[in-house]
Amino acid sequence: MRYLVLLVSLLLPSALTAQEWEDRQVFGTSEAVSLRILSSTDTSFFAPIIEDFIETAPHISVEYLVTGTVDLDHAFRASPADFDVVISSAMDLQFKLTNDGFAAPLVDLDHPEWAQWHDRLFAFTSEPAAIVINRKAFGDLPLPRSRQDLIALMRAHPDRFQERVGTYDVRQSGLGYLFATQDARASETFWRLMEVMGRTGARLYCCSGQMIDDLRKGELVMAYNVLGSYAQAQAEQSEELTVILPSEFPTTMMRTVLMSKDARSPQAAEGFIRHLLMLQETGDALKFPLPPLTQSQNDDLLRTINLEPALITYLDKIKKQAFMREWENALVQEYRNYTP
């Protein structure tokens, strides 16, 4: 069956009217939207999943709304009844939403214990943070294999990297903040790397997509902590990009999904989540074009972030303020007001 995929311009009720979406599409032939999904994942990754779900439930029409991880958290907290399903790469924010009582339980799901929290929050991908290089801009420099290699290269060749290094602005990006805090916990080189990047006048970004776009255009030589799944998808279509997972360990997050406890379409929401997790298990790349979920909690080479209460340590107000101050002192420096 052929489905309509339409850009939607209608105003939504309540808090949604003031929200600007990065993307907003409707899937299905039903005139009335029966399932609303709030997500930080680009539509291109989820379109095959939604379309496959609609094949099994053609009476359902799905509205898919995309925004950044921080805005997603704010929008859902402000009006949880306006969304049925929430999908985000910011594991810590999702965990806190669940812990704060915003997620409904889904029982009898055959899903690994390590990939869920109290039958309310479910992980369905494993995705590392990567170093991404523009090979042409990098020239004859040796490719870095570790964070220490990256530090040595930027110190030895400051002119090559000046204002051409990108990373997340952790003040804007929930995923960027998650990667940074986990890096700081696990790696002794993190703060030294931030200081060196700061001296190069690092450009700060809200999201991986913008970093990758500037890498492809040659405006950046290198970007750090880019979401690996996005980078790899672009690298497969571009000869300019090389994706490197740090040899010490790549910090690896798990993308998660929850159902709103105030969902207006709970049956459709539960059906979609069950279908999503089923597709993840099948490994069909055409229907599930995201990285598979892998258990690597005990693998030092991957360092997957666990679904556990320690996730929200750095969401504590005092700890977050302290981390932000240290991050700004190390990275922003004289480029404090730079906006890409």
Keyphrases for this structure?
globular, alpha/beta, single chain, disordered C terminus, 36% helix, 12 helices, 340 residues, D-Maltodextrin-Binding Protein, domain 2, 8-stranded mixed β-sheet, 2 domains, 6-stranded mixed β-sheet
Fold and architecture overview:
Helices cover 36% and strands 17% of the residues. It is of the alpha/beta class and 340 residues long. The strands form two sheets. An eight-stranded mixed β-sheet has the order 1-2-4-3-5-14-7-6, sandwiched between helices. Strands 8, 9, 10, 11, 12 and 13 form a six-stranded mixed β-sheet that branches.
Summed up, what is this model?
Helix content is 36%, strand content 17%.
Topology record:
Elements: E1 5-7, E2 23-27, E3 35-39, H1 43-56, E4 62-66, H2 69-78, E5 85-88, H3 91-99, E6 116-117, E7 121-123, E8 127-134, H4 135-138, H5 147-156, H6 158-161, E9 165-168, H7 174-186, H8 190-199, E10 203-205, H9 208-216, E11 222-227, H10 228-235, E12 241-244, E13 252-253, E14 256-259, H11 266-282, H12 317-332
Parallel strand pairs: 3-4, 3-5, 9-10, 9-11
Antiparallel strand pairs: 1-2, 2-4, 5-14, 6-7, 7-14, 8-11, 8-12, 8-13
Strands side by side in the biggest sheet: 1-2-4-3-5-14-7-6
- What is the helix fraction of residues, given as a range? 25-40%
The poorly predicted ranges are 1-17, 334-340
Instruction: Please state the CA-atom Rg, rounded to the nearest Å.
Output: 20 Å
Would you count the extended β strands for me?
14
Shape: globular
Class computed from helices, strands and strand pairing: alpha/beta
